[in-house]
Structure formats: structure tokens, C-alpha cells
Amino acid sequence: MELLKVGDPAPDFETVDQNGKTVRLSDFRGMPVVLYFYPKDNTPGCTVEAKNFRDNIDIFNSKAKVIGVSVDSQESHMKFHEKLNLNFDLLSDKNKDIVKKYGVLGVATAKRVTYIIDKDGKIAYVFEKVKPDGHAKEVYEKMKELNIID
Predict the structure, then answer these.
(1) What's domain 14-141's superfamily in CATH?
(2) Residues with catalytic annotation?
């Protein structure tokens, strides 16, 4: 499956976060969403990316919802979330349903891809080549440029 394109509707999904709470993308309709896919909890690049969003979450708060997604289990996410003291949710896609819908399934994990979803649930931008360090600010600047947030 190919990556989604700008203007495509963001496929809805239902899964659990690090605490086992059910989450649906449609829960956030009316607010922009940063949906970032990453390969694996506790690996170097994924740790850098998660810390980068954690340390910059204030630029998104009340303006956009930041969500990380990987094929790791809810238990793995809970440990990773606690270890890094994350301040945003990590969603488990153990069955690989979400990564398939979004065209980001790699060999056995998710590819490192970030989607900006506008308040109407449409894909506003796709980051295909993500560098983990500095990515949060890069996403924020793109959202401002596209007038998704002010």
C-alpha cells in the first residue's frame, strides 16, 4: 500500500493507548492531529524522536494533538512512556491494521513517517523522510505555514 496523499481522508481507526484506553482518530475531529509512526520502542532513533516531541509539546498543546504509533504492544508502550516520561499518547498497532491503512508498513515494523491531519480529518502534509532530532519543530513550522495552527 502506498502512503496517503495530501487531501486524502485520514482513515479512522480504533486501538489502545499505553494505558489500555480505547482511542479512535475520530475522537479528535475538530482539532489538528500529528500522527507520527515510528519503528520500535526503546531504539535509538525512536527514543530521540519521542523525547523531541516530549520536550516541545508546549508548542502543540491546545492547538494540535500529538500521537505516536508503532506495532509494539500496549505493555511495551507503557514502559517506554514511563521511562521517557512522555506527555502524549502512544498507540499500539499490534495487528498492523493502522500502519497498513496509512501505507507505512515496513518489513516488520512501521516506517518513520509523520502525517499532519487537519481539523476536518484530511491529510494536510506527509513527512516521508523524517530525521528524529528536531522533527517536532519541523512539524510545528509546517503546520503554521499551512495555516493549520497559528
Answers:
(1) Glutaredoxin (3.40.30.10)
(2) 46
